[in-house]
C-alpha cells in the first residue's frame, strides 16, 4: 500500500469521534479505504456514515456499489433500495435514477446467474 494513502486514512481516522465527525467524514474515509483495497473497512465506515445521516443518498450508492464488488448482492440490493428512498425523500433525482439503474442491472445479473 502506498504511504500517502496510509497517511490519509490515518489522518481521517484521527478525526473520527471528534467534533468534525459525521457522514461526510465517514464517506471520505470509506473512499480512502477503498483506494487501499479495504472494502470491508469501507463498508463499516459507510454504515457509520448512514448512522449520522440515513438520507445521504451518495453514501447509499457507494455502499451498494461496494457490496456488489464484495459479492454481497442481497445487501447491495437492499442498500440501493434504501438509497432510492433517501434520494426520493431529498429530491435527488440524479442519485435516484443512478441507483434504479444499478438495482435493475443487479437484479438482471442475479436472474441470469440463477440455476434454471
Count the DSSP helices: 6
CATH topology: Serine Threonine Protein Phosphatase 5, Tetratricopeptide repeat
Shape category: globular
List low-confidence stretches: none
Written account of the structure:
With about 120 residues, this protein is an all-alpha fold. The protein has one domain: Serine Threonine Protein Phosphatase 5, Tetratricopeptide repeat (Alpha Horseshoe). Helix content is about 80%, strand content about 0%. The chain is built from 6 helices and no strands. It has helices at about 5-15, 25-35, 40-50, 55-70, 75-90, 95-115. The longest helix has 21 residues, at about 95-115. The radius of gyration is 15 Å and the shape is globular. The termini are far apart.
List the helices and strands and how they pair.
Blueprint: H1 3-15, H2 23-35, H3 39-52, H4 57-69, H5 73-90, H6 93-113
Helix pairs in contact: 1-2, 2-3, 3-4, 4-5, 4-6, 5-6
